[in-house]
Amino acid sequence: RRPARLEPYRPADALVLAFLLVILTTGFLIEGARIQLTQDPWAAWSPVGSGTGWLLASLWDPPQLQLLHRSLWWFHLVIVMGFIAWIPYSRLFHMITAPANIYLQNRGAKGALRPLELRPEGPLGAGALSQFTWKDLLDLDACTECGRCQDQCPATASGKPLSPKKLILNLRSLQHSAGGNGGAPLDTAVSDAELWACTTCRACSEACPVLIEHVDKVVEMRRHRVLAESR
């Protein structure tokens, strides 16, 4: 019953859930030990912590509880700091990038093409990562992989090779694998068939919960392949 638009589960997804479970469990254990050791008068307002503390007090005496509290406090700190440091490398990175992408959304006319600057030294469209704007690159990291764009795309629905979600994810994979190499060519991530299957209807962008502009990237890549490469 899993919707086809969603990505398959990955081992890293289970690791995210394990991290959250350990953080929450140790947090309640620390709170319970603290409540018992300090006889916190506000304990009734922390029902889960109070219940955990009552259970711990039935198993250990105060010196043991103090040792447990101190040990768990440091363990909890290390796990939380490690989890925060890992977020940029996990599926959860969109917690940071998605709100930023929404705040920095394009407030101009929807679907308006960017003016093409014809300069001898300048690029025509986008043939490499460095030729995208900073906002284009932020779009890639903001994707939540929900697949709503793919569900609304008429090209995908009619069996053409384009999936707006896969286009964004492939570009993101190229961006991460390039590791700062802005000259990484885009045609290794997006084929001509995908680009020309797009009808530029913007159904994908309208459906996107984090306001990614898929069509702008398609148009810039088309421009480069036509004007710079005569494709």
Describe this structure in words.
This protein is mainly alpha-helical and 231 residues long. Helices cover 58% and strands 0% of the residues. It is built from eleven helices and no strands. The longest helix is centred in the first third of the chain and has 28 residues, at 11-38. The two termini are 42 Å apart.
Task: Throw out a few tags for this protein.
single chain, 231 residues, 58% helix
Structure in a nutshell:
The chain is 58% helix and 0% strand. The protein has 11 helices and no strands. The relative contact order is 0.12.
Q: Determine the fraction of residues in helical runs and give it as a percent range.
A: 55-70%
Sheet with the most strands, sense and barrel status: none
Oligomer: single chain
Low-confidence stretches: none
The count of β-strands is 0
Helices and strands in order, then pairings?
Elements (H helix, E strand, L loop, with lengths): L10 H28 L8 H11 L4 H25 L7 H10 L30 H9 L5 H5 L1 H4 L6 H15 L13 H6 L5 H5 L6 H15 L3
